[in-house]
Automatic annotation (TrEMBL):
Catalytic activity: [(1->4)-alpha-D-glucosyl](n) + phosphate = [(1->4)-alpha-D-glucosyl](n-1) + alpha-D-glucose 1-phosphate
Lineage: Bacteria, Pseudomonadati, Pseudomonadota, Gammaproteobacteria, Alteromonadales
Organism: Motilimonas cestriensis
Key words, A-Z: Carbohydrate metabolism, Glycosyltransferase, Pyridoxal phosphate, Transferase
Protein name: Alpha-1,4 glucan phosphorylase
Cofactor section: pyridoxal 5'-phosphate
Length: 820
C-alpha cells in the first residue's frame, strides 16, 4: 500500500452491499446481467455516498468558520480526466474497492476503464485548472471552480487518410455518475436589449432592459481531497432556454420552430471554443464567455448574501481568479450589479470590484491576447460597454495622465480600446486594470510580461505583477499514472511525498544504488511495453521497447514547433537512406496533439507527420531504426499512458513564446529527460536538475529578439545547410504524397516564403546537434538512468501544491478550513 487509509466506516462488506444496492435500485439491473459500464456506475454511486457526505461537511464547516474566504476559480476549461481511480486513491479506498469488486466477480481495472474522459477542456490551461482544484482541496483551502458544462467539449479527433477529422465528443452519452444537477440554483441571464437612464432623487441611474434571457443550470462535480475529508466543488453551468418549447408552433405543425429557442440556447454550452471565423461564431463565443461569468458572479453574490446584508465586504469573503482573459467580462458584470442593482456609487463599487479579482496571464503571443469588437459587445451587452468606457476614461484620465502628462503614446497603448476598424476591446488590458494582482506562470514568462508585454502597467503598479510558477498534482501525475514507480519511491523514502513533493529529494541518494536503479529501469521498460502494446493494438505499428521513446505531446501550434521535430526525423531518414549502416540508436518518435479546426497549417503538420510515418514505418531499408507514431485523440487518459513510458520530453518552443508548460513537468517527474529550449518552465527545470541532465539548445529570448531586429532571412539558413535544404525540398515534392505532389508544400512555404515566424530554420542545426548528443548519451545506460532518477528526485518544486501555497501567500490570502 502507498498510503495509510483514512478512517472510514466503509468496510469491504459495506462497499459490496452498497454497490449491489445501486446496481439493483439506482440502475435497475442485477449482478447476473449487468454490463461493465453498469458495474462502473454502481461503484461510483457507492463512492458518492462517502463523497457527498464529506462535501456537505466541507460546505458547512466553511460557513461556520466565519465564512472563510473562498477562491472562485473562473475558467473556460477544466480538463479533469477520469475520476474513478483518482477518487479511490484520494478517499483511501482503492484496496477495499478492489477487494469488494473481486469478491463480486469483477475486475477494478476493467470497471474503471469504462469511464470516458469528461470533455471539458483542450490542453494545458484546462489541465492546470484541474491540478489546482486537486491541490486546493488537499491543502484544505475553500474553493469553487466555475466552468461550463459542455455537451460535446472540444472534439473527438480522428485520423482519416492522414488528416485530422473532428467528431462530436458526447462524453455523457450514458450519464456521468460523479455529477449532480443543482436545478434549485438555476439563474436567468440577460442578453441584448438597451439601457435606460432614470433618476433616483437627484442621482442619475442606469438600468439594463434585456430583450432575451438564458437559463444557467449548475451541475456540480465534487473535488475529493487526498487524505483529508474536505471536498470542494466544481460547478459547471449548462445553458438552457427559459421557454424551451412552443406548444402553439408544434400544434400548427411547425415542429422545428417549436424547438427553436431550445436549440439556440443549448448551442451556448455545446462546444468549447466555437469557431469564431464567422460573425455568428464570434457572437456565440462572446455569449459563451459572458454566460460563464454572469452565472458565476451571481452565484458568488448569492452565497455571500446568505450571511451578509450588503456587498461591502464581498472582497473579504471571496476572490475571483480569472484563468486567462476568457472570464474578463466578469469585471464589468460585477460593476453592473454593484452600480445598477445594489445602488452603490462608482468609487466604492470600483474599490470593491478591483479587490475581488486577480488575473493569470498565460500567453505572450499577440494573436492570443483576446480582443472583441466594440460593436459586438455593445450589441450583446449594451450596459457593459458603457461600464468599460467609464473604467477606461477614469483610468486614462486619473492614472495614466497623472503618471505621464500629455504622453499620447502611453494613452494609446494602455487604453482598454484599440483604435482601428473595427474598434476593439482589449481584454488583457481590462483584466490588468480591473484586478489587484496579475501573475505570470513561470519565472521567465513573468519577466517577459513585465518587460515586453505590460512594461507600462508594471511601472504604474509595481507590486501588481507577480510570478507563480505552474505545477502538477503528484497524485495524478505520479501516484496514479505510474503506480509501480510510486510504489518504489514510497518503499524507499515513505509515502509522505504525495503531499510534499519536495521530499522526492530523498530519492537522489538511490541514484547510484544498483538495486534501486535496476528496479527503476524495469519499471520504465514495463511502461514502454504497455505503450508499445497500445500502439500495436490501435495503429498496427510494431515498436521496439529497446528504442528511445521520443515524445512530443501538446496542442499542435507553430510556436510549439512540431515541424522542427519533423525536419529532424526527415534528416535521420535521409542519412539512413544514404548509408543503411548509419550509426544511430533506434528511435520511436511519438506525437499526440489536436489542431484547432480552423488552423489550416497546424492540420497540415498533422497530415505531414502521418504521411511521413506511413513511408518511414514501411521502409525495410532502414531496418526499423526509425518509427513515427501519431496517436489520435490526445486526452488526459492517453497522457497517463504515454508519460510514464517516455525517455525523451520534447519541449522545443521558440524561446519567449511558451508561458510555462506543464507537460515538461509531468514527463520529467516520470523520468524523461528534457530536450528543450530555454523557454517557459524549461528554464527552471534545467536549474533544478542541472544542465548536464537535460539537453538544452537553440536561441535564447535575447538572441531571438536580436535576430528579428536585425532582419531574419530564413533563406540564408537553407543556403548554408545542404541537409536542411534537402528535407525542405522533400516537403515540396511527392516523396511522401505521390498521389498529391506538393501536398506538404504549405509547411515549406511557411518556413521560407512565409518568413518562418517561429525561427524553426534558425534553430535547426542546434536542434540536430542536441539530438546527436542525446543519442550518444542514451547508449551509456548507467549514466542515462542516473540522469532519469535525478530528474524524478529534483523536480519536487513543480508540484501544484507549491503553486497553490504561492497563490495563497502572495495573492489570495486564504485560511485553511479542516473538516474533522
Amino acid at each position: 500500500m502507498l498510503t495509510k487509509e483514512k478512517p472510514t466506516s466503509l468496510s469491504v462488506e459495506k462497499l459490496k452491499l452498497s454497490i449491489v444496492r445501486h446496481l439493483r435500485t439506482t440502475l435497475a439491473s442485477n449482478e447476473h446481467v449487468a454490463s461493465q459500464n453498469t458495474w462502473w456506475q454502481a461503484t461510483c454511486f457507492a463512492l458518492n455516498e462517502e463523497i457527498f457526505e464529506n462535501a456537505w461537511s466541507t460546505f458547512k464547516q466553511t460557513r461556520l468558520d466565519h465564512c472563510a474566504r473562498t477562491v472562485n476559480y473562473l475558467s473556460l476549461e477544466f480538463l479533469i480526466g477520469r475520476l474513478t481511480t483518482n477518487n479511490l486513491i484520494n478517499l483511501g479506498l482503492e484496496d477495499k474497492v478492489r477487494q469488494a469488486l473481486n469478491e463480486l466477480g469483477q475486475d477494478i481495472n476493467a470497471i474503471s476503464g469504462e469511464e470516458r474522459d469528461p470533455s471539458l477542456g483542450n490542453g494545458g490551461l484546462g489541465r492546470l485548472a484541474a491540478c489546482f482544484m486537486d491541490s486546493l482541496v488537499t491543502l484544505e483551502y475553500p474553493a469553487v471552480g466555475y466552468g461550463l458544462h459542455y455537451q460535446y467539449g472540444l472534439f473527438r479527433q480522428g485520423i482519416k487518410n492522414g488528416e485530422q477529422v473532428e467528431y462530436p465528443d458526447n462524453w455523457r452519452d450514458y450519464g456521468y455518475p460523479f455529477e449532480v444537477c443543482r436545478s434549485s440554483f438555476a439563474l436567468d441571464i440577460p442578453l441584448y436589449g438597451h439601457v435606460e437612464t432614470y433618476y433616483q432623487g437627484d442621482t442619475m441611474r442606469k438600468r439594463w432592459v434585456p430583450s432575451q434571457y438564458l437559463r444557467g443550470v449548475p451541475w456540480d462535480i465534487p473535488v475529493v481531497g487526498f487524505e483529508v475529508k474536505n471536498v470542494n466543488t466544481l460547478r459547471l453551468w449548462e445553458c438552457r432556454a427559459v421557454n424551451e418549447f412552443d406548444l402553439n408552433q408544434f400544434n400548427q405543425g411547425c415542429f422545428a420552430s417549436a424547438l427553436h429557442e431550445k436549440v439556440k440556447a443549448e448551442s451556448v454550452t455545446q462546444v468549447l471554443y466555437p469557431n469564431d471565423e464567422s460573425e455568428m461564431g464570434k457572437e456565440l463565443r462572446l455569449i459563451q464567455q459572458y454566460f460563464l461569468c454572469a452565472c458565476s458572479v451571481r452565484d458568488i453574490i448569492n452565497r455571500h448574501k446568505e450571511h451578509f446584508a450588503s456587498l461591502d465586504n464581498l472582497c473579504d469573503t471571496n476572490v475571483m481568479q480569472l484563468n486567462d482573459t476568457h472570464p474578463a467580462i466578469a469585471i464589468p458584470e460585477l460593476m453592473r450589479i454593484l452600480l445598477d442593482e445594489e445602488g452603490i456609487e462608482w468609487d466604492k463599487a470600483w474599490k470593491i470590484s478591483q479587490r475581488c479579482f486577480a488575473y493569470t496571464n498565460h500567453t505572450l503571443l499577440p494573436e492570443a491576447l483576446e480582443t472583441w469588437p466594440v460593436d459586438l459587445i455593445a450589441k450583446v451587452l449594451p450596459r457593459h460597454i458603457e461600464i468599460i468606457n467609464e473604467i477606461n476614461y477614469l483610468f486614462l484620465s486619473q492614472v495614466v495622465e497623472k503618471q505621464w502628462p500629455g504622453d499620447q503614446e502611453k494613452l494609446i497603448k494602455l487604453s482598454i480600446f484599440e483604435e482601428g476598424y473595427p474598434r476593439q476591446v482589449r481584454m488583457a488590458n481590462l483584466s490588468v486594470i480591473g484586478s489587484y494582482k496579475v501573475n505570470g506562470v513561470a519565472k521567465l514568462h513573468t519577466q517577459l510580461v513585465k518587460s515586453d508585454l505590460f512594461p507600462e502597467f508594471d511601472a504604474l503598479f509595481p507590486d501588481r505583477l507577480v510570478n507563480v510558477t505552474n505545477g502538477v498534482t503528484p497524485r495524478r501525475w505520479l501516484r496514479q499514472c505510474n503506480p509501480a514507480l510510486a510504489q518504489l519511491i514510497s518503499a524507499n523514502i515513505g509515502p509522505q511525498w504525495q503531499k510534499d513533493l519536495s521530499l522526492l529529494a530523498g530519492v537522489e541518494k538511490y541514484a547510484t544504488d544498483k538495486k534501486f536503479v535496476q528496479q527503476y529501469a524495469d519499471i520504465k521498460l514495463a511502461n514502454k511495453q504497455k505503450l508499445a502494446n497500445y500502439i500495436k493494438d490501435n495503429l498496427a505499428i510494431d515498436v521496439s521497447t529497446e528504442a528511445i521513446f521520443d515524445v512530443q505531446i501538446k496542442r499542435l501550434h507553430e510556436y510549439k514547433r512540431q515541424h522542427l521535430n519533423l525536419l529532424h526525423i526527415l534528416t535521420l531518414y535521409r542519412r539512413l537512406l544514404a548509408d543503411p549502416n548509419y550509426d544511430m540508436h533506434s528511435r520511436v518518435f511519438i506525437f499526440a496533439a489536436k489542431a484547432a479546426p480552423g488552423y489550416r497549417l497546424a492540420k497540415d503538420i498533422i497530415y505531414a507527420i502521418n504521411k511521413v510515418a506511413a513511408v518511414i514505418n514501411s521502409d525495410e531499408r532502414i531496418k526499423g531504426k526509425i518509427k513515427v507514431v501519431f496517436l489520435p485523440d490526445y486526452s488526459v487518459t492517453l497522457a497517463e499512458l504515454i508519460i510514464p513510458a517516455a525517455d525523451v520530453s520534447e519541449q522545443i518552443s521558440t524561446a519567449g513564446k511558451e508561458a510555462s508548460g506543464t507537460g515538461n513537468m509531468k514527463l520529467g517527474l516520470n523520468g524523461a529527460l528534457t530536450l528543450g529550449t530555454l523557454d517557459g518552465a524549461n528554464v527552471e527545470i534545467a536549474e533544478e536538475v542541472g544542465d548536464e541532465h537535460a539537453f538544452i539548445f537553440g536561441l535564447t529570448v535575447d538572441q531571438v529578439n536580436a535576430l528579428k531586429a536585425s532582419g531574419y532571412r530564413p533563406q540564408d539558413y537553407i543556403a548554408q545547410n545542404d541537409e536542411l535544404k534537402a528535407v525542405v525540398d522533400w516537403l515540396c515534392g511527392d516523396k511522401f504524397t505521390p498521389e498529391e505532389p506538393g501536398r506538404l508544400s504549405s509547411i515549406a512555404h511557411s518556413l521560407v516564403q512565409g518568413g518562418d515566424p517561429y525561427l524553426v530554420l534558425a534553430d535547426f542545426a542546434a536542434y540536430v546537434e542536441a539530438q546527436a548528443q542525446l543519442d550518444k548519451a542514451y547508449r551509456n545506460r548507467t549514466a542515462w538512468l542516473h540522469s532519469t532518477i535525478l530528474n524524478t528526485a529534483r523536480l519536487g518544486k513543480f508540484s501544484s501544491d507549491r503553486s497553490i501555497e504561492d497563490y495563497v501567500r502572495d495573492i489570495w490570502h486564504l485560511k485553511k478550513v479542516s473538516v474533522k
